[in-house]
Amino acid sequence: MNPEILQTPIDYLKGVGPNRADLLRSELSIHTYQDLINFFPNRYIDKTHYYKINQLQRNSSEVQIIGKIIHLKTVEQNRGKRLVATFVDETGQMELVWFRGHKWIRESIKINEPYVIFGRTNWFNGLFNMPHPEMELLTDHERSLRTAMQPVYPSTEKLTSRGITNRVINKLMQQLFVETQSKFSETLSSSILNDLKLISKSSALFNIHFPKNQQLLAKAQYRLKFEELFYIQLQLITKNLIRKNKIKGFNFDQVGPLFNEFYKSYLPFELTNAQKKVIKEIRNDLGSNAQMNRLLQGDVGSGKTIVALMVMLLAIDNGFQACLMAPTEILAQQHYNGIYELVKKLDVNIQLLTGSTKTSERKEIHRQLESGELDILIGTHAILEDKVQFKNLGLAIIDEQHRFGVAQRSKLWHKNETPPHILVMTATPIPRTLAMSLYGDLDISVINELPPGRKPVKTVHRYDSNRLKVFRFIRDEIEKGRQVYIVYPLIQESEKMDYKDLMDGYASIEREFPKPKYQISIVHGQMKSADKDYEMERFVKGETQIMVATTVIEVGVNVPNASVMIIESAERFGLSQLHQLRGRVGRGADQSYCILMTSHKLSNDSKTRLETMVRTNDGFEIAEVDLKLRGPGDIMGTQQSGVLNLRIADIVKDNEILKTARYYAMKILKDDPSLSQPENRVLRHTYGLLAKHKNIWNYIS
Ligand code: ADP
Ligand code: MG
C-alpha cells in the first residue's frame, strides 16, 4: 500500500473530530495514522471463553456470557432507582443492573435477542448479577473485528472523562485498518523472517490490536519486540562501525621502552589472565588507526588501575600525553600516589590537578601540558576546564564512569583536533543486556577475575539489637591488627538528620573505643577537603584503626589492611552502593567481613537487597537483581535512559529477544555493512527513515 497514507493527520480518520484529535494529540501524542497504529495495548482481556450461567463462580472475575434479556424493570430504592434486567441462557438466570443511564438503556435494549455480555459478576440474594455490563448483540459481535482477546489500551483520566474510552480507541483502530486495508509494508528482510519464523508486519500489527487467540498474540508480540530491539541494535552497531571507519585515531603502533621496562622491572605482581586479555584488546584498538572508545568493566578490586597505567605508558611510548580522570579528589589523589609510586623510577613526568591545586602549581601544570613536558595528568573534572590544554593528548581514561555523564566524555573528545582514545572504566557492573543497549556504541572489555589469593568477603546481616556483639567482633579484629570502616548513609534530602546520625554514631563509637588505645578517623561531606585528606591519610597509613564515614569513601579508595566494613542503616542503601562499599574490603590477603546493620523494620525490597548481598559477591549478579528491583531507567540515571524508551519490548524481561536481535544485527552488518545487498534493501530503507526520526516507532512501519 501507499506508505504515505500513514502520515495522514489523525483528524482525517473517520470518527475523529477536531476535539478528539486534540485530545489524542495532547494525551497520547497520536498525531498521525502511524502513531495510532503504533499505539499498542498494554494488556488484553481474554474473551476467548464464553461462560454459562451455571458455571459462574463467586470470585467476582470478568466473564463473558451469551444469553437473552427476557424482562426489564425499574426498582425503587432509598438511594435512587436502579434498572434491573433478567438475563437467561439455557443453564440459568441472572440479573444485569444499571444505576445510571436508564433512559438510554431502556431505549436501546432489545428484548429476547441474543446478546454477548461482559463484566464482573457479584453474588447477591441467591443470584448472580452484573452491574453495568458491556453488551453487544451477538450478530454484531460475530461480525466485529474485535474478536477474542480484547486489547486494553493505555489511557488517561482526561481521556476517559471526555468519552474516549477503550472502546472508542478500539473502534478508531478498526476504522484505521479499514482505511488502510490492513496492509502494511514489511520492514524486516525475508531471511530474518524465515530464519526466526516471524509473522509478517501486517499480520503482527493486526494481531497486536485484534488478536484472534493467545498464540497469534504471542507471535505478534514477539515479532514487534524483535523488530524494535533489532533496529536499536542495528543503529548502535552501525554507529560504532562508522566511528571505527571514519574517525581516525592516533596510531600507537610502538610498544616502546617505557611499557617494556615497566613490564619487566616494576610490575609489582603477575597480571591476571583477565588483565592480560583486556590489555591486548586495548592494544588492538590503539593500533587500528581508529579512535578507541572502550568501556572497561571490572568489579571493585579487579585491578583496573594497573591496566590504566600500562595503557598510559603505551601512549607516552608513542609520543603522546595521557590523562586519568577520577570522580573525587580523594580518589584522584590516591591514583596519583599509587601510580607515582609505580613509575617513579621511570622517566615519566606525572602531575595531579584537582580543584584544590594551588594557583602557582596549576600555572606550572598548564605550562608543562602545553609544552609537552608533562606526560601523565591525573585529576578530577578540573581536567575538563577549557584552560587545560594539552600539546598532544593521545589517551583519556575516565575512572568510575557512572559519576560522569556523556557530556563530559565528549568534552574530552574535543581536547584535540583528532579525538584521543577514550577508555572508560567502571566498577558498577552493568548487566550485559543493559550495557548492550546503553553502550552499544562503545566496545566493552570485562575483567572477570580477581587477583589471586583474595578471599571472598563474608557478608552477614545483623539487627541493631545485636550491636554489642558487633562491637566485640570489631575489637577482636583490631586486636589482630586489622582496620575497620563504619559507614553511615547520607541521602541528600535528609542531610541534616543523616549528619546527626553520623555524629551520634561517632560519639558512641568513641565511647566504645576510647583513646589512646584506639584512634578513629572521620570523613564526611561537610569537611574541608584538606581535613578529609588528612583523616584519610591517617587511616591509609594505619595510624587510625577505625574510619567512620559517609559514603564519600564509596568509590575507589584502597586500604588493603582494612578488613571489616560495617554499613549502618544498610536498608537505606541501594544495591550497587552496598556492593561498592563492600568492595573497599577484601583487598588484602586476610579474611574480610561486611556487616549490614539494620533495624527490624524492613520493606520487601530492602530484604531482597540484603539477602542478595549476603548470598553473593558477584557484581554482575547483583546488578541483575538491582535492574529487576529498580528498572533500567533508574540505574543509569535519566540522561541515558532515552534509549530505553521502548514501546513494546522490555529490556529485562525480553533479554533473550534482545540477544537474538543483537546477534542478527551483528551478523548482517558483518556481511553487508552498508546494507546494500538486495536482500537487505528493506532494512536499509527502514534504517534510512530511522535516521530521520527520533522515535523508532515512527519509522518501522
Ligand atoms: P579496581 O579495579 O577496583 O580499581 P585496583 O586497581 O584498585 O582495583 O586494584 C585493587 C588492588 O589489587 C590493588 O591493591 C592492586 O595493587 C591489586 N592488584 C591489581 N592487580 C593485581 C594482580 N594481578 N595481582 C595482585 N594484586 C593485584
Ligand atoms: Mg579503581
In percent, how much strand structure appears in the residues? Answer: 15-25%
CATH class value of the domain at 458-616 = Alpha Beta
Q: Architecture of the domain at 458-616, CATH level 2? A: 3-Layer(aba) Sandwich
Radius of gyration: 33 Å
Q: Remind me, CATH topology of the domain at 458-616?
A: Rossmann fold
Q: How helix-rich are the residues, as a percent range?
A: 40-55%
Through-space gap between termini: 12 Å
Largest sheet: 7 strands, mixed
Mean pLDDT across all amino acids? 86
Which hetero compounds are present in the coordinates? adenosine-5'-diphosphate, magnesium ion
Q: How does the helix and strand content classify structurally?
A: alpha/beta
Quickly count the helices: 25
- Shape designation: globular
Low-confidence runs of at least 5 consecutive residues: 635-643, 695-701
- Counting DSSP E segments of at least 2 residues, the number of strands comes to 22
Keywords: ATP-binding, DNA damage, DNA recombination, DNA repair, DNA-binding, Helicase, Hydrolase, Isomerase, Nucleotide-binding
Protein name: ATP-dependent DNA helicase RecG
EC number: 5.6.2.4
Domain Helicase C-terminal: 466-633
